[in-house]
Amino acid sequence: MLIVRKASRFAVIVAISVLMLATITSTALAANNGDTGLLNNNNKYLPIEVINALEQESNGGATNSRLILDNVMLPSSMNIMTPNVNMDKVANATPLHAFEYDFKGDLKQHGYTEEQIDSFTYDNYIAIEDKWKLKKEQIIAARSLYPELKAVDLSDWTNADFKRYYAKVDRAEIEKRFTSEQLQQLKQRGIRSDDLFYLFKEFHTVDAILAQSDDILRETIEGYYEFKLNQVTLMALDPTKYTQQNMPRYGVDWFLNSVVTSNYWLQIQSDRTLVALRKLYNVNFSSFNGYVTNMYGTYSVSQGGAHEGIDFAYGGVGTNIYAIFNGTEVLSGLSHQLSVYDSNVGKTYNFLHMDSKTVISPPITNGQHVGKQGNKGNAIGAHVHFEVQSGRKTGLSSGNDHVLGSISPYQLHIYLGEL
Predict the structure, then answer these.
(1) Domain count, the chain
(2) pTM metric for this prediction
């Protein structure tokens, strides 16, 4: 059963008040980053400005706070009282050294000095990277992810151009999963289309979303509003553990800093994930409407922590599942779990929530039918949770913390060769 954790709005308001003590720290961050001249591009507000505005509003409001909140806050679904922060309007002042990815290496290749880079925040990097033209590998990935771009000259496209394109397309694709009647049902229940992405993360299918009570849907959406608000307060005080990224053919989500990467690798990883998705269900692209509902290292409201694998969804219960790898041994695990170990690379590939598993004898070969998709175990909505472990291991990593115990499935090309 999916358990939705509901944070206390009172606790959030108290946290905001306490974090007002972070003003000095945040002011220092702003001063340190001011040299770059990039932090407040695109009319973004510093996290401390948003916190101050919320605090003033709770104490009766002030003209300047209302102006900020009018720009930063989005309308809420279902009359939820927790502020719905538009994170596109909040500057990310997290310093680059808080990330494991080598942003510094990228910047040095483009002529930036060590001294310049030391003062850069994540927002500074993104503002710079957005101006870089797509590399050859990115253009190949873009055309694979969006076949309609095969007839478009992308040679002069920048990262910003491509991001604007897929942000618009991906948002429209989410709504296309619903019929007009289903969208009307959700509208009548007070759910805005902007919040459909959050619901897919937790429930995976349209039918599963529509089957939930108003209370469950409200708690799920409110959980994400509260998570975003907490991220604002954390960014004002100290580097947060999660950073917002927009992944092609997926959407805008919060990724652990340990998996946050450049636009280049985000696009390459998205392409590889799509290849794995198509092989998992053994379908042709032209007739395929499958998608990913959760990525590795993203925040999950129901788990209260980082997601340990990738959730694939296509069709419903009973959809056939196929191997995307070769394996040397089938290991025993949970009744709805298929675990295949490959002694050649020392990795175990785990498939969760399966409705049934085909009786299979090793070796497992790429493309072999291995079972049927389900929604068994801790799941609502038919999907396949795919998780990679090091060694001969069927035990799954806990998802109720902010630490990743499994191996990144974004790197399947390393373990398996190019798919």
Answers:
(1) 1
(2) 0.88
